[in-house]
Amino acid sequence: MTIHEFGPYRLDAKAEILFRGSEPVALGRRAVMLLRLLVERAGTPVSRDALMQAAWPDLAIEESNLTVQIAALRRIFAEIDGAAAWIETLPRRGYRYVGPPVATAFGADLPASSAPAVSDRPSLAVLPFSNLSGDPGQEYFSDGITGDIIAELSRFRSLLVVARHSSFAYKGKTPEIKRVGRELGVSYVAEGSVRKIGGRVRAIVQLLDSASGYNLWTERYYRELEDIFALQDEIVRAIVAALPGRLEDAGREIARRKPTPSVTAYDLVLLGNERWRQLTVRGMAEARQHFRNAVALDPQYARAHANIAWTMVCDVFLESPAPATLDEARREIEAALDIDDGDAWSHGVFAQLLFLRNDDAKAEIHFSRALALNPNDADVIAVFANILVYWGRWREALTWIGAAKRLNPFPPNLYHWYHALALYSGREYELAIKALMEARSLDRWSHALLAACYAQMGRRGEAQSEADAFVSERRREMIANGQAVPAKTLDLARTRADRYRDPADRDHFLDGLRKAGLTS
């Protein structure tokens, strides 16, 4: 393992990941490869030809690609005063690293299961706001308000904000704040309540110190429903301002454009969000109709367009019997980005769509954009980790899934699948089994991966048992979807295996299942 350290940054040369402190930086692989060469030759001019050969070996590319990647590096460094000048342009010659001294350390590889250290940033969890309307049918509204506030807080780079999924583990409970702080690993907890009556909203929000339980701030809000977005921004600004100490961006103006002038359209998006989170074919179809109704009310509602595309992408991942076309999904996500190019969620959706269309280079660009806009989006980080596995970059995947689990301490089962799949690619079968066993329940693909792991370890009895469970559940799923069931059981897994770009990785996945008893 080779580590280059300079200023607050650490470049892991083998994993090809740049860290700032303990947090991975959203930076494309090409840019990291360029940075590695520059810091390895710190203080020395590096020609354009040498840089292009390092990042694009044996490919004929235009110099403009190099310029774009250097600009990306400078944008990252620009977060530190004066650091944008660390990479010096040498006219007609190339570039030179002239930043802080570079310290290089060499050592043994870290265990494949290692995860990033806990962040030293101020950390916060927002618990689900209570619904005080007296109508259980309004739960989606209070949940939606909470989710939007979490999303807005996540945009602050100086904060570590726990993901919605983990915060909502406390929904309907009244946990002791110190316990929440310990379980989520956060210093501060925000909680509150929402009551919607007719055309008005009442909200009460408070911020607590999780170590002492001390109330740092409380505020009551009474607003017209049409002012809901202004209310959310006001709550976000108040929470950030109430946090002890100075945050590097605490004084920035959120300046978010009002997403839609139609409160009804916003309500439809909240309803749709509740449906797609069921992660079922039926739930996706119902959600998509809500989002389409929202677009009909406001064609300029970027999030509604993005969410239509998202349900179509999910249909493909869920192997829906009649998925919408990805061409239609692309039209919707491009419409969303035309309206609001600064929305992290939309870039994350587009990245997954591009992956499904085998446009990997553009997919990585949009993943990087999503993570730069919202470094606290655990779900995008986790999906990026999963796709890195299919790109053959399992070491990077392990780092990113570790970061996702830090942001989402009570993660959905998919995170454990992503983690285990990366470990399987690294031939860490025992650790992969351990990761899968952290899930609250096992689905068909978890049984498949367990079967492959056990088979690779020579534990044939356990492998056969898991393989039988996979075959049974996968056949049942295909029959329910009206799909033809293949005669060869290995063919039940080929769609998933085909996501691997490297044939060797694909063969390794199928080999474990073949050893577990699936027929080809």
Automatic annotation (TrEMBL):
Q: Where is the OmpR/PhoB-type domain?
A: 1-99
Q: Name one Pfam family in it.
A: Trans_reg_C
Presence of keyword Hydrolase: no
The answer to keyword Transport applying to this record is no
Swiss-Prot/TrEMBL keywords:
DNA-binding
The entry's DNA-binding region? 1-99
- This protein is called what? Winged helix-turn-helix domain-containing protein
Give the organism the record lists: Bradyrhizobium xenonodulans
Q: Give the taxonomic lineage as stored in the record.
A: Bacteria, Pseudomonadati, Pseudomonadota, Alphaproteobacteria, Hyphomicrobiales
